[in-house]
Write the structure tokens for this entry.
Amino acid sequence: MTSYELIDTVQELKKLYLIQKEELGLRLPAALTQIQQDAFNAFNQLGIPTTKAENYRYTDLKPSFSKIYKTALSSQEIQIEEDALFNCDVPNLDTQVEFILNGRYVARQLDLTVLPSGVVYGSLLNAWSEFPELVGKYFAKAADYKDDGLVALNTALALDGFFLFVPKNRQIKDTIQLITMLDHTDNLAVNTRNLIILEDNASAHILVCDHTFGESHFLSNSITEIFAGENASFHLTKMQNANNHSTCLDGNFIYQQANSQVIANAISLHGGLIRNHFHVKLDGEGANNITSGLYLTDRNQQITNHTLIEHLKPHCMSSQLFKGVLDDEAIGAFNGKIHVHPDAQKTEAYQVNRTILLSDTAKMNTKPMLEIYADDVKCSHGATIGQLDDEALFYLQSRGISKKEARLMLMYAFMDEVVSTIQIPGLKERVEELVSKRLRGELSRCNHCDFKCH
Amino acid sequence: MNQYKEELNPETNQDQLLQEMTQSDYKYGFVTDIESDTIEKGLSEETVRLISGKKNEPAWMLEFRLKAYRHWLTLPLPTWPHLTIPEIDYQDIIYYSAPKQKKSLSSLDEVDPELLDTFNKLGIPLDEQKLLTGVAVDAVMDSVSVKTTFKKNLADLGIIFCSFSEAVQEYPDLVKKYMGTVVPYRDNYYAALNSAVFSDGSFVYIPKGVRCPMELSTYFRINAANTGQFERTLIVADDNAYVSYLEGCTAPMRDENQLHAAIVEIIAMDHASVKYSTVQNWYPGDKEGKGGIYNFVTKRGMCKGVHSKISWTQVETGSAVTWKYPSCILRGDHSVGEFYSVAVTNNYQQADTGSKMIHIGKNTKSTIVSKGISAGRSQNSYRGLVRVARNADNARNFSQCDSLLLGDKCGAHTFPYLEVDNQSAIVEHEATTSKIGEDQIFYCNQRGISTEDAIGLIVNGYAKEVLNQLPMEFAVEAQKLLQISLEGSVG
């Protein structure tokens, strides 16, 4: 992997590492500083991935990393106004709301909450100091920083984010709604790190809503590591709704043990450049993974969904479904791979990517790949790029539906396949509404927001 | 009793069949004892000049070779294919080897009987008495064209079918006009190498409005040891012309690897249609993966004119390593590109093969059907690109890539790239990977079909879509090849 030379942002980020090391070095657990040091060395070697790297072939990060960003924030800048009761895109859900602002966990009561049941949630940084063994056991074990520059960068720099630990046999019934916000008057680069651990038979649901405020340029490089123990069940939904100047590089590294089930959805509604990265390791018999994504992009927005589903053990199942609509000058990419390791017999793995292009200037690149080293498998992938079906349009029009409405109906129906995989109660309806609004061109991202920045 | 036993224990039976299959020998592995004119090992500008001199080439040709050679020196080795290739020492290869006695031959009697014998063993109808077969053959041994049949009949229609070196001498204008226009010498590592050292090949020109009445065929044979084969084929179909072209290849069994780096260029003008079929059966190496041919080939067709069509069909069973992507550039409006492929890998064979379809003209269509079959410890990859350029309105592509896995040590991979820059395009890609289902075998067994026959039936059905595209003469050979390579090899 070759790297870009002399990008200011990269220099700034390297400086930030040294500053953090000096200021916080002694306060951080030794295990973390060691990992950060290794990751920083790895980053110095890897650099920011270029389009020459196969995994970033269709995602040019150069413009994003060529801007000038502020990289360090003082502690005052991270405080959220107590009364600024934030109302998200997905209100009225029976959720427990948690906030991450500019990469730091915002505590309303405690930095780290330990429930009598053993469930722990709150700030990752605090979890490091209170449960160093637990965190050290999992941290950076799923997200390998040795071969991806972005992961190395995040691992070297990220200090905080959301931490969740669900012990054996515990279920968290309410959905946790994690609202991650970027808000600053200057351009800002942020590295956020989340760690989610579910022990055997545990279950949890998390809804992550990404937001930006104001018109500053943001660069968010976040990583979420998820560990699902035996029989655990986890459901992750991501709602991405950032401004058109922002870059969201979102890595999700999921490690699943036997009979666990993880469902992950990425709903990308807005953002300058969004790159969703899902790396799933199915390392136990009977593990099941469903990863899906939906993208609605227009203007100069860019969206990349990058997946790597590794089947390490027999009898696992995985299914990927990514669908989207591109309008105006939007550029989309799907870069998916199913990798079946030699002993993973009886694997079932499916992958589908479908895209509709609405304008002559929109562009879609898709690369659905299979790498299979076991013989007794059922694997398939399919990709289509096309436009709305003329005959279906005609059918609807001939029944008195206006062309515009008919187009919306068809697009809506096209999206429904992904929306219907969402299993959080109430959320599905809300997403349906958002998708419908997004398709109508009504800017949905601020409808319920008190900040009214638009 | 025996029958009963077999059915009682299908697993053992299948293992046995697999054994038999993997032990079936490469029947084209003989060496012909022919005196040949061979140059020293090694590659330098001198070598390039020497080859050019031996062929008595005009200055422009030498210039082309030298440019290619100098460019080749600057190129890095491609590392992107999903292949493990031991380092190749390009100085340890003989770049020119020709059967001696290469005077102009007027009748078959003048051909070295050993040579004739070779081609007879291969079952190639060099013999002009075999009129019934109706195939015009250009036989290339160690990269020099030995004999071209039916030349006169074709000449009557204005069709030029001759060796490449002959074309350079006799039709320099045509060669100059078309050579390197589809695969420029800068294209890739092996194309540059070939452009520098190619020794011979075939040249075909079909004039306006002519439908070539017979299949044209080239048979490639590597005979001498330590040599690389670098041939170059150029096919030009002028307006409204049609030609069907066949290519076959074999090589002796040798312990060391031999390099084959060829270029095939096809140009189809307005309303022209070219069908190019390959049955590739280079020596694949032994069961331990020792020896075999490295087959690094650049094949590309340009649909230059409106309503032109280029169709590639390939059956790939040989070579230790295959690196080959027959492609179509659909430049003319309404042009059509097709690619049908069956690639079989066994033992330690590796194949990274597929197709590229570049849609540039309006209303262009392309179809890719690729069937991979891997057995033993082989790795079989499909790698393809479908690109729709911004102005290629109403482009249509359908790709289907299926893989069949026979055995638990082999791999089957799919790397499709779809790049669409036009809203009106419809691009579809489908792929499946599976083994022959136990239920399918059971179903056949239940109806009194033995396991071996059932597998034959299923594999044949699996590959039929591609085999159907082959001309008669080749379809028979291809089916036989598949039989040798696959029968009973399912676990």
About this structure: Chain B has a mean pLDDT of 80. Chain B has one domain: 2-486. The CA atoms of residues 154 and 160 of chain B lie 7 Å apart.
